[in-house]
């Protein structure tokens, strides 16, 4: 027998209680792993390193459209290779299925996004046909759309000039991604901005965002500063950021994800602290005489403190690591199930924060019972006082 | 090597219960020679267990000095006293106080976890201790699978596994029937006579005291008499 063996034996003196507590810890760390990865994704700061594209939107919010007329000024900024623009259409398929639909400038969009792969004649058809529509492979497969089909979409924002919110488009191409990562993102629909401009009742000559392709070697940060400086104090102040940051901001519209995640985690861990802390306290209370016997045999106060802390640690480490492992598996499953549209990477960062949380939790739940065990007076404890 | 295993000098022990101060031992002086087997008797509250706890280094006197094996134990710090107990004293309690989650051999091995012995050496010592108390075949059994007498034998094996020179036993037969009590007391007598252990037991049972070389009577915290047996 070793001290570790003694710790494990003590942990399993009440198997049901220990297993239930272990499950609580596992569940908490499973949630922690998934939510922390979500928070990590949403709180990743601006990183211009390696950025090849920037997105310019209205400073206040991308829901406030910018004039398309800004295009030549943007194209003239040093370091800018090509600019395209994109308008959120708010497309709805059939009764209530939201479809990511953007009205784009066809030729420039093709230049700025070489990652979308499609036969060249389909690109030409998209440019040439006013009512043309492109659909991503995932979406087309999901709804069984075929090239040549007429696809009716309604917009929850823009009615046509005749007042109808129903639009009809000709599916002229189905685009794919250039690699696995891009293939996972083929879930949007593109329509012609020119046609949208002509037909819409309002919002003409405006767009939600410009997408800027940087020239090779250009500094994204410098271009971003130049653009935003150019429109400062104008009626259309801009905010220019990397594409990755913009994509995150797009999802953040639903609220401060980081704050929500923090509150949920706080509630989870506070509850866990009470559950495991109570288990440990109860476990020590139940065996005060045994702890006194250990001291009688020559275990020092520090030895006994260490044994109780080790028990709390073993419980938290076992449950925590199991929880984080399950979170990694679940994260991968979520990514697979959504075709990569929703990613929860339980990566090294999440693991390191998780391990720090496990250590903190071990100390938090074990310290008070361990101190109680340490301070036990042998004579009083043996006498049941 | 000092002639006396235990020297208690003018020891007073008082407890505070609320605002009340209760003096359990009053200026008690006692010498126990090396290799002695002493029974402490007396009515409840006379201070027997308190004296045993002081000799075993589980508690410290309010006044006076205690030397055990030449060590002035009331001057040791809490951690020094713990280390000293591990090497020098074996304890046997009335209710055995075994760890229910450990097997008999696990319980006996516990004090050895504080030593630098290898796992193989520990195993050997545990086997020897269990064989000495006649429980070699019960090594893998948990305490709940043993009878009271067997549990107390395991406790005795645990007390002697690290080969301490002094054994202190608090009512070791208080929870046992006559026959089993005699077996345990016989075992202690063997440890005293054949292995040279100095043994101090607290008992209410005059028959148990008969196994000791001498009996000391306490009353109201003071030693009354010393009766040397033939």
Describe the structure.
- The complex is a heterodimer of chains A (385) and B (230).
- A six-stranded mixed barrel of chain A has the order 4-5-10-7-9-8.
- In chain A, a hairpin with a 3-residue loop joins strand 4 (91-93) and strand 5.
- The longest helix of chain A has 37 residues, at 301-337.
- Chain A contains 15 helices and 13 strands.
- With 385 residues, chain A is α+β, with helices and mostly antiparallel strands.
- Chain A has helices spanning 3-11, 15-43, 71-75, 106-112, 120-128, 137-143, 180-183, 193-199, 220-230, 243-252, 257-286, 288-297, 301-337, 348-375, 378-382; strands at 53-58, 66-67, 80-88, 91-93, 97-104, 116-117, 132-136, 150-155, 166-177, 188-192, 206-207, 209-214, 238-242.
- The mean pLDDT of chain A is 88.
- In chain A, 54% of the residues lie in helices and 18% in strands.
- By secondary structure, chain B is an alpha/beta fold.
- Chain B has seven helices and ten strands.
- In chain B, a hairpin with a 2-residue loop joins strand 9 (214-219) and strand 10 (222-228).
- The longest helix of chain B has 18 residues, at 178-195.
- Chain B is globular and about 50 Å long.
